[in-house]
Specification:
Layout lengths: L1 E4 H16 L4 E5 L2 E6 L11 H21 L22
Parallel strand pairs: 1-2
Antiparallel strand pairs: 2-3
């Protein structure tokens, strides 16, 4: 980890950003107080194509149906009759 002053950060920001992007942790301090840190950017999650998205959704749907079956519940859930209030949540 490298600690630089605020003045040094102003003077060498492009270089500090390149170093941080390469994985070095840079801390910017003023009078011994840490103000900010520079580090590599987080990895971007890959974007799923439509086929992969549909596969994940289908797997999710199968798991929900299986969990309902394990608990002895119908799936898809039966709709509540109209005009009847929703049951109170046990967590409420």
């Amino acid at each position: 980890m490298t600690v630089v002053t605020l003045t040094e950060a102003r003077e060498h920001l492009p270089d500090l950003i390149r170093r941080a992007a390469a994985g070095e942790q840079i801390v910017i301090a003023d009078n011994g107080t840490w103000l900010a840190s520079l580090g590599a950017a987080p990895q971007v999650a890959p974007v799923m194509d439509e086929t992969e998205r549909q596969r994940v959704l289908d797997e999710f749907e199968r798991n929900i149906a299986r969990w309902h079956a394990e608990d002895g519940l119908p799936y898809p859930p039966e709709p509540l009759p109209q005009g009847r209030p929703l049951p109170e949540s046990p967590a409420a």
